[in-house]
Amino acid sequence: MSYAVKEIFLTLQGEGGQIGRTAVFCRFAGCNLWSGQEADRTKAICQFCDTDFVGVDGIGGGRFTEADQLADAIEQCWGDIDPSCRFVVFTGGEPLLQLDGELIDLLKKKGFFIAVETNGTLVAPQGIDWICVSPKAGSTLLQRSGKELKLVYPQDGLDPQDFVGLDFAVFRLQPKDDKNKHEHLQKAIEYCQKNPKWHLSLQTHKLIGIP
Ligand SMILES: C[S@@+](CC[C@H](N)C(=O)[O-])C[C@H]1O[C@@H](n2cnc3c(N)ncnc32)[C@H](O)[C@@H]1O
Ligand SMILES: Nc1nc2[nH]cc(C(=O)O)c2c(=O)[nH]1
Ligand code: SF4
Ligand SMILES: [Mg+2]
C-alpha cells in the first residue's frame, strides 16, 4: 500500500474528547465528498470543509510507498518527548480511504495511541483506539459506532436526533465555521441546552492560533 499525505505536524488536539492532548497530526490527501478544489465546492456533497487536503506539499507531506516509512515519519515528528504519551490523529481529507491495518499495527508497536477523524462513509479498520465520526448530509453513514460522534451544525437536511440511537459514547455538536459562524454557535448552544445528550464542541486550535 502507498500513501499520499498532505502534511504531518505536531500540535494539540483542538477538538473533541482528546482535546488539549499533544498529538502528531497525519493529514492524508484526498476526500470522497469533495475534490478540494474551490471551483467544485458548490457541487460537492460536503461544502463547508475548512481544510486544504489537496496534494502532498505540506510540512512533512509526501508520497510514502511503504507503511514503515510513514510510521517512521510519524515517530520522528513525535521526536524525543515522553514516549509513554505518544498520540497520533489521522485526518484529512478522508483518512479511511488510506489508513490500513499494516500502518495501525506498526504504530501500535511504537506505542502510539491512535485516533481518527472520519466522515463515516467507510468502515474503519480494526485497532484504532479513538474513532470520531462526523456525518455529512447527503452521504451514507457506514461507520456507525465509535468513541464520539461530532456533528457539524447546522447542516441542511440533518437532524441531530437521527443519530442518538447509534453506538457512540458521546455526542457533540460542532458549530459550522463559515461566514455565519456566530449565528451557528448560538444555535448550537441553544440546541445543547435543550437537548443535553449533546455536548458543545469548539475548535479550540482556531481560538488559540495553533495549526
Ligand atoms: C477536515 S475534517 C477531516 C476528517 C473527515 N473527512 C471528516 O470530515 O470527519 C476534520 C473535522 O473538521 C470538521 N470540519 C470541517 N469543516 C468544518 C467547518 N467549516 N466547521 C466546523 N467543523 C468542520 C469535520 O466535520 C471533521 O470533524
Ligand atoms: N489542532 C487541531 N486539532 C484538530 N482536530 C481535528 C482536526 C482536523 O482537521 O481533523 C484538527 C486540526 O486541524 N488541528
Ligand atoms: S468530508 Fe471531511 S475532509 Fe471531506 S470535505 Fe468534508 S470536512 Fe472536508
Ligand atoms: Mg482541522
TrEMBL record:
Substrate binds at residues 12-14, 27, 91, 211. InterPro entries: 7-CO-7-deazaguanine_synth-like, Aldolase_TIM, QueE_Cx14CxxC, rSAM, rSAM_sf. S-adenosyl-L-methionine binds at residues 48-50, 93, 134-136, 174-177. It catalyses: 6-carboxy-5,6,7,8-tetrahydropterin + H(+) = 7-carboxy-7-carbaguanine + NH4(+). [4Fe-4S] cluster binds at residues 31, 46, 49. Its EC number is 4.3.99.3. Residues 18-211 form the Radical SAM core domain. One of its GO terms (molecular function) is lyase activity. Belongs to the radical SAM superfamily. 7-carboxy-7-deazaguanine synthase family. Catalyzes the complex heterocyclic radical-mediated conversion of 6-carboxy-5,6,7,8-tetrahydropterin (CPH4) to 7-carboxy-7-deazaguanine (CDG), a step common to the biosynthetic pathways of all 7-deazapurine-containing compounds. Homodimer. This is 7-carboxy-7-deazaguanine synthase. It comes from Commensalibacter oyaizuii.
